[in-house]
Amino acid sequence: MPDAVPAAPRWRRRKTARPAEIAAAALEVFAERGFAAARLEDVAARAGVSKAALYLYFATKTDLFRAVVAQAVSPRLDQARLLAAVEDQPLDRIVPTLLSLIAAVAQGSHIGGVAKMVIGESRNFPDLAQIWHDQVVSQALGVLTAVVERAQARGEARSGDARLYAFSLVGPMVTGILWREVFVPVGGAPLDLADLAQQHARAVLHGLVTPSRAAA
Amino acid sequence: MPDAVPAAPRWRRRKTARPAEIAAAALEVFAERGFAAARLEDVAARAGVSKAALYLYFATKTDLFRAVVAQAVSPRLDQARLLAAVEDQPLDRIVPTLLSLIAAVAQGSHIGGVAKMVIGESRNFPDLAQIWHDQVVSQALGVLTAVVERAQARGEARSGDARLYAFSLVGPMVTGILWREVFVPVGGAPLDLADLAQQHARAVLHGLVTPSRAAA
DNA sequence: GCTATTACTGACCCATCGGTCATCAAGGTC
DNA sequence: GACCTTGATGACCGATGGGTCAGTAATAGC
User: Fold this and answer.
1) Distances (CA, A) of B134 to B76, B110, B117, B139
2) Within 7 Å: CB of B39 and strand D?
3) pTM of the predicted structure, to 2 decimals
4) Which of A90, A151, B24, B129 lies 20 to 30 A from A201 at CA?
5) Distance from the Cα of residue B96 to its chain's centroid
């Protein structure tokens, strides 16, 4: 035999890369199984690392969970602020834009999975539900409420509770996102969020009832 | 001392009453903690029975879970059929009725909790998500889709994908129910489902944009 | 009352999984 | 190339909680 082949080392030291990799793996596992049912062994395996290595970067399973949610939240925050910036356009121009953006964000991220997980574990981790509420849901709802109020002030939108109207606007998107997350994997009919955004925007803005018959 | 007081027996034999009581207790615990984090000991305690007694009526924790969901589902099924019966009224009469009914049902039952639990455990118990889909969500969505299609056939509703319109109709209610379940306990602003039903009905039917400006 | 039946319990077993630790080896430094 | 720091590991511990079972006491039948 020739000189021993310099076999690939059994592992490498990658202090900076690890945390993000672990958090990403954890996101997947938590989103699939929920917090309680997720096994750290699985997270470790998916991150290509031993279970003990997790504890070099995260003190407890709960801390890891928090980190994962926080990581999933912060990029969305920026997006929410971006939304807020667009505000001063007529209602029937801004609403389709906002809803389409929600659709796009939902498709290009793991928000659905995180939402599912936060919903499922909300009683066990109230502080997490709170973070999610304060930093994501409440923000988004606030932006929409403000948009509606502004439109009302301009006499452009029907009077009524602006916050409830915000529910009218996002509700179908939220439901659609959860639908895809929960029911499509078990045989539910697929759902195109972009189509939903488009059509729902038209519906809430101008009404489902055909104009000829409308009589508020 | 006089004759021994005939102390209340330490427990009673109540073969027929137990299963329902256990299922009710389990509903509460599962809805609070989710499946994995729920302890059978807690279920037993809340049912006023020992843990071992659970196994006289349910073979495994999973079976108990199934029973709970099934029990929560079947009454709703009837309600769904009832909905379907009302169908042939003008859209702007039937929609407020349906949405208000959803609000009432949500307030008078544990549907919210069950939904939360099914969402959270959907990957761990796909068959449960399926049951819930087939027997509740899909039914309800079907009723709404049919209502919309009928209205479209009468030229009463705007054209478009009837199923997506069904999302436009229920989405805000679903979101509201989850809001109450998840965020209100951690400081989210309270939400009146009846108000939401009322106002949302007006919004989707006749449009958020003030009639004078409307121009589909 | 006496007995047979069985609903119910308390104490136990043991698999799973979060968390720890002694040890190893990658790789920077001189 | 020798040494040291430290990222990483595998084998382990202990608690938790699902599930079991021999025994106990409520009650139906006579």
Assistant:
1) 12, 19, 16, 7
2) yes
3) 0.90
4) B129
5) 19
